[in-house]
Design a protein that fits this description.
The complex is a heterodimer of chains A (270) and B (271).
Chain A (H helix, E strand, L loop, with lengths): L17 E13 L8 H10 L6 E13 L3 E5 L6 H8 L7 E7 L2 E4 L12 H11 L4 H15 L14 H12 L6 E5 L7 H16 L3 E5 L3 H7 L2 E6 L2 E7 H23 L1
Helix pairs in contact in A: 3-4, 3-5, 4-5
Chain B lengths: L3 E3 L6 H11 L1 H16 L7 H21 L6 H32 L9 H16 L1 H10 L11 H25 L3 H14 L7 H5 L5 H4 L2 H15 L5 H26 L7
The chains are: A alpha/beta (270), B mainly alpha (271).
Chain lengths: 270, 271
Amino acid sequence: MILHTTHNSTNNEPQQDSAIFLKDVSVHYRLPSETIKTFKEYMIRLVKREIERRSFSALKNINLDVKKGEILGIIGRNGAGKSTLMKVISKVLIPSEGRVWINGQISPLLQLGAGFHPELTGRENIYLNATLLGHSHNQIEQKLNNIIEFAEIGDFIEAPLRTYSSGMRARLGFSVATAWKPDILLLDEVLSVGDVAFREKCVDRMSYFRDQGSTVLIVSHSIESVQETCQNTIWLDKGEIVGSGETVHVCDAYQKEMQRKKSKIDGKLF
Amino acid sequence: MTTIYDSAKRKHPAIEELIALWRYRDLIYQLVRRDIVARYKRSILGVAWTMLNPLGTMLIMVIVFSKVFNRPDNYAGYVLSGIICWSTFSQSTNMSMRSMVWGSRLLNQIYVPKTSFVLSTVLAGMVNFVLSLVPLFLIFAFSGVQLRPSALLLPIQMIFLFSFSLGVALLVSTLAVFFPDVADLYPVLLTAWMYLTPIIMPLEFYQEILDGLLLYINPFYYIVNLFRILMLDGFVPHLQTWIATGVSSFGILIIGWIFFTLKADDFAYNT
């Protein structure tokens, strides 16, 4: 089912105003049953010539052209390829086929507090975490006070991270990850960080980025959060874009399809 | 500054990785710092362990082996220099594997140059190497060994030790990502390798086996040999020795680097 083709771009080259451009992108994973877990097994199979290369495709011929400043929702059921798409865009995964073109700095809010070390202090962990996200020492020094203040850590900043509560950790992680305005922001599922007050601060910061012209991609399997924030949405199913266009229409079609599937199952049950 | 990433216009992965590492150089510093600081933060003696550890091993070896072998001159200095070089190599390659397995979980979430974890672990190993020179000098002073001007060439030997360790670390880490059992296999291999290298047993012992063949095919022999010549014997070796050491260590580094970077794209597929 194809609704609109605004994002199913037919361009062969990224345009002037493109932020994310994907052309015929496919990702093939090896089937889980085919993965060889030990070196011994690999050698045995190599000798016996039993190494098969069967695979399944997590993404199939994805074409996408996201413009600068756009807020795009990505919906689809579990295993539809949403996370794989995020990985391809954030350079974590090099696609098996096709071309990925990204203009600008990406901030993936997928892994908050990546690489935090329990023995290091909050301050030391800020440096570690921020350099993992690709920021330089100077950049961090400029933002350090900001980060500490936003995280509401207080005097704990000089204490080792193992003494932090899980909420404090999450706040510090979020604070570091969003200290810099990214050109492209990737959000996986809805943020559930800290208490209500802090969550409001987070939402504020997201809207600020949006207003400042960041491109935002929001992945979700609940359509409410997508409907709230996104102008446009793409719908992924079994690694393919099956619908794209205005959020209202795509979500409508998605919901109907889910209802239909559900009633089919219900019909079988009763 | 705009940064454009285009998967269709990538350079050779080995080159691409070098450029990415330069861009992430502050991360390397942070990771090295973390490795060193975190290791000693909760122990009372802290950094002193780096120095006490080889000293303790040496003491045991001297006591044990003075009963077995005719102890050569300066056996304490001989063993300690062997142990310092070897443990730098064995620990940094072993730790690299572990930090790569840890890092590969992270690599599944965010983009980071994939050699960062291995490189920083080996660099941290080199910092420990420098620290463990302190007890070596103490033992030298104790047993009357005088450092000669040749000791000033030690930095070159360190570059060789670093290159060789990094090369091997990259090779085993790549394997360990795909096959977790390599992490169990490698320490066994290391133990065997250590006994095939003149670390604790005197050099004469190896020279008698197959006319010293075991020594010549062992790249680590060149490295530890160079260290002892510069520090213990106190003379500048022949050009031949330099070339043999340089070629074997840089050769391993280049092989390891290319192997790792060619396989690195597949890391994230291996979940």
